[in-house]
Amino acid sequence: MSSDKASSASKRLAINTVTKRLSHFDGDRLIKEYPVAVGKQTTPTPNGFYKIKSKIVNPGGVLGTRWMGMDIPGGNYGIHGTNNPASIGTAASLGCVRMFNHHVEELFPNVFIGTPVHINSTMAVDWSKTNKPAQGKKTYTIKSGDTLWKIARDFNVSINELIAVNNISNPDQIQPGQVIIIP
After folding, report:
1. How many Cβ atoms from other residues are within 10 Å of residue 60's Cβ?
2. 22 and 91 belong to one structural domain
3. Which of 24, 66, 67, 104 is the S-S candidate for 99 at Cβ 3.0 to 4.6 Å?
4. Quick one: 21 and 75 in the same domain?
5. pLDDT tens digits for 85-130?
6. Known catalytic residue: 118?
7. Which CATH number is 150's domain given?
8. Full residue range of the structural domain in which residue 166 is found
9. Both 45 and 112 in a single domain?
10. Which domain CATH number covers 42?
11. Regarding beta strands 78-80 and 97-98, do their DSSP bridges make them parallel or antiparallel, or are they unpaired?
12. 11-16 and 116-120 as β-strands: parallel, antiparallel, unpaired?
């Protein structure tokens, strides 16, 4: 393993859509935190655990100076710069995470393909859930039109169990493509 790969193994990003902050971690150590713009109410940034799948320098236009694509199912979501810096700190995007261009340029060389990204709308980040659930645990990928109540009914589990196991702060804000654990 190259030293770059070895040093990147413990790096991860956490994006909080409530506080509109992106946190860059190395292990348990916070390296830096950045203000961001997230998806607006009609096109929210999907909560869940993802990975960086692509990186582009100077994608241009609304994407600003850098693009880091995430493996979020059902869409083309990324962390990127912006040509609208006034939007940072707001819910303004179509689901992507916008950063000031100078911030995304600072972060970009420290993020690698495969870097974990946790997007959440709670204050706490539970990194123990970043890996696939333990064998024997059933998961379900949320589809368009699903509600937590429908999923609970379909799998014959209590809504409270579903919320607790998945650390869901707002049961009305589940997203298509989000993977949840069925207790």
Report:
1. 11
2. yes
3. 104
4. yes
5. 999 999 999 999 999 999 999 999 999 999 999 998 875 545 444 4
6. no
7. 3.10.350.10
8. 132-182
9. yes
10. 2.40.440.10
11. parallel
12. parallel
Are 38 and 122 in the same domain? yes
Which of 80, 102, 103, 118 does the annotation list as catalytic? Answer: 80
Q: Catalytic site residue 80?
A: yes
Structure tokens at 166: 């998945």
Cα–Cα distance, 76 to 95 (Å, whole number): 9
Specify the residue for token string 């207790």.
183
Of 178 and 137, the structure prediction assigns the larger pLDDT to 178
| HEC letters along the chain | CCHHHHHHCCEEEEEECCCCEEEEEECCEEEEEEECEEECCCCCCCCEEEEEEEEEECCCHHHCCEEEEECCCCCCCEEECCCCHHHCCCEEECCCEECCHHHHHHHHHHCCCCCEEEEECCCCCCHHHCCCCCCCCEEEECCCCCCHHHHHHHCCCCHHHHHHHCCCCCCCCCCCCCEEEEC
- Total domain count, the chain: 2
pTM assigned to the model: 0.66
